[in-house]
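Researcher: Let's run the pair from yesterday's discussion. Sequence first, then tokens, for each.
Model: Starting with the first of the pair.
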Amino acid sequence: MTRSRNIAIHIIGWALFLILPLVFSPGPAFSSHGIPHFLKRELIACVLLIGYFYLSAVLVSEFYFKGKYTLFFLLAFVCFLVTTLVPFLFIPGHPDLPVDPQFPRPPGDDNSILMEFGHNFFRFSVVTFVSLTLKISNRWKQAEQEKLNAELSYLKAQINPHFLFNTLNSIYSLSIQKSDHTPSAIVKLSSMMRYVVSESSRDFVSLEKELNYIRNYIELQQLRFGDAIQLLFFVDGSSGAKRIAPLILIPFVENAFKHGINAEEISKIKVSIEVDNHELRLEVYNKKVVVRKDEERSGLGIENTRNRLQLLYPDRHILSITDAKEDFSVLLTIRLK
């Protein structure tokens, strides 16, 4: 669709460009003697400038961007001479050619090549400037996209180990307790790892898969802690065919379990997800408890997710984090595609 639109824009733009000589003609565009020589030369010059526009894109890439400025401007000057002189080779001036007596001979319908140099210089400069600007803009967009891809790859690479360490700790705890739930926990871990390996490299995934991942994670934590925590978890609304960035919600849920559970204190955790049309609302709450010193360093997953939200949903999300003395809460709203 974008390619077709660009082609249409080029066609319309060049059609208007070719009409300009007719609109701004100093004399009649047509007479009893046909199209004046000066207008024929104008049309040939415009066609040559159109060809130069696309050639200049190659010159910019091969010479300007590589720092060969002298060669670039030299070749551009040669192109300027061609677009100025070639029309005179095809349509030379004929001062003795009869013209329509009702109109004076239009200026430029003679052999004044010097006048044509000045006239063509402005158009040539505009075409060069537009071509150079477009190439620089496209190059900047490409660099920004490459930077975006690199940042996302880096952030995803950090997320996967974070998830793995947390989940393995949960299963390790179950195995120490010789819990009958250990096999079930391993199956859930297998399902979650399959999701991480197969889906996390994608830009967007099915919302239903993302929600299933969160369900598995919470059920795994419930197997580990049982009745030791007061947990409220619910999902409301239909995921339908909606899509979301993978692993964009789980860091907030992980953080609640990591810093909201202590066997010696009352642990309260709430996770609610509501989907209404194309808007997803995530609310996570946990009561703060005392954690071991080696777990005090927090916020890595949340900080990564904050960055990903800025990159992937720059104008389509609202993130509110409340870090109070007694509790911690997150409210995230995302407009989904």
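Model: Moving on to the second of the pair.
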Amino acid sequence: MSSSLEDVEYLVRSEHRVAVLDALADGPQSRSELRALTGASASTISRMLREFEARHWIGKEGHQFEATPLGAFVVEGLMRLLGRMETEQTLREVMRWFPTDDVEFDVVRCLRDAEIVFPTESDPMAPVRRAGQQLRAGTRLRFLTTQVTVQYFDVVRELVSDEGMHVEGVVTPGVYDTLVSDPAMAAVYDDLRDSEDVRVLVTEGVPLILQIVDDRVGVGLVDEAATPRGLICSDADRVHRWAVDTFETYRGEAEPVSEP
């Protein structure tokens, strides 16, 4: 009798086996239908079906094959494991850059359903654009940041001007210097600084990039060289509570900017 690990190894060693057993768990299939599904040869399909029958994972009626309750049970567990491993591969990258100091929740469990946006060669600004989209879905923004982009603050300006969004942000001294001295940034910030709906505070030691848009949280990922690596979007209650607590901590340490 084969061991459980041997059966798992047998299944996952071939994508065709996984695809065929999964298809048979959904309903009866003929050999030709399984060939069309997988692109495997007739001999490969025949051998696979014999091996599945020997394990009592499938049954046959006429020219149709279908998973037995035992086979359906096996493939259901396997697909759940494969889904978890896909999530792990994504979170593996996230965990390299997630600011884990003083986090009081299980990062992996709380973020497994989060939306993760990574920059790509063809779309390096994807995280910034997604952060802007998240902004457009809310009416109140609270943020901490160690970096700024004209694209992001331009969306903030639009929403303050057109939608009356309330904004409260805590930035580092370096970020504030950029807001007022960089010509492109200053052109945007000048339209925000006099608004009663916008409040900017400054403090040293802001540890991360964080935005809270109503009940949804965005966490910016940066590496050791401060290079942007992605964005986490989450609406998990525990993540939201952590984000609010973190924002309140640094807001309590910050001072309002002295506008000229």
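Researcher: Give me one sentence on the second I can quote.
Model: The beta strands are 58-61, 64-67, 115-117, 140-145, 166-171, 198-202, 209-213, 216-222, 228-234, 255-256.
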